Amino acid sequence: MLRLYTYWRSSAAYRVRIALNLKGLSYESVPVHLLRDGGEHKRPDYLGLHPQGLVPTLAADGLVVPQSLAICEYLEEIHPEPRLLPGAARDRATVRGMALAVACDVHPLNNLSILQYLRAELGADDAAVGRWVTHWIVRGFTALERWVEACAGSTPAQAQRACYGAAPTLADICLVPQMYNARRFGVDVAPFPRLQAICRHLEALPAFEAARPEAQPDSEQALASG
Ligand SMILES: N[C@@H](CCC(=O)N[C@@H](CS)C(=O)NCC(=O)O)C(=O)O
Fold first, then answer.
1. What does the angle CA 20 – CA 160 – CA 72 come to, to the nearest 5 degrees?
2. Is the separation of the CB atoms in 5 and 28 below 8 Å?
3. Pairing of β 57-60 and β 27-31
4. Which amino acids bring their CB within 6 angstroms of ligand 1?
5. Please, is 156 exposed, middle or buried when counting C-beta atoms within 10 Å of its C-beta (0-12, 13-18, 19+)?
6. I need a labelling partner for 77 at 20 to 30 A (CA). Which of 2, 36, 63, 180 fits?
7. For the segment 34-55, what is each residue's pLDDT rounded down to a tens digit?
8. Quick one: pLDDT at residue 160?
9. What spacing in Å lies between the alpha carbon of 66 and ligand 1's midpoint?
10. What's 158's DSSP letter?
11. In ligand 1, which atom is closest to the CA atom of 32?
12. Whose CA is nearest to atom 17 of ligand 1?
């Protein structure tokens, strides 16, 4: 049985939920609340699973895998279909590049502990934190919008339903949660029409719909409705 340590609003966990759903793998969700009691991810029992104290973590048959992209690649290797990475090495390189552009160069800068540090250690107020988050998301999305457009090449526009081609890949698994973050932080995403169109299309697919934060059993919405 696959067990996913997750938090409904965590975009890194959202990536893994999409990957599991796309591959049709059932899993048990173990909620790790990032805010309650100072953060359940900082407890010794969780640190025993994930030395960095971040979500998500995947546990399966005695194996424990921290880091969302390592988890997605592990799932890809043990359940190759449907593919999250294209068949040709050159296409895989592009998809991995796009995924890393979000996962390494955008997402960490709007992560909870970074924003807490800005507030507590550097004295940033809400407005400054908002400017910080917006700056890094806009910078990352500007590049990704251009990159996705360049990759569209000669394919008809409707064939480019995802970041790279028609089918969802690891790049989309990173983009959709980051778009969720952008909206949540009130970032104006109008300058990114391609990224928006891709997200609209993907968010309607069952695998993405079931992975969205508000659909999780530990979401504020789910807990409020009992
Ligand atoms: N690179 C990591 C990032 C994980 C990460 O930053 N998780 C966030 C939630 S999206 C977290 O646990 N934050 C807790 C904190 O910053 O204290 C991954 O892809 O798994």
1. 20
2. no
3. unpaired
4. 10-12, 34, 39, 41, 54-56, 67-69, 103, 111-113
5. exposed
6. 180
7. 999 999 999 999 999 999 999 9
8. 73
9. 10
10. G
11. 12
12. 113
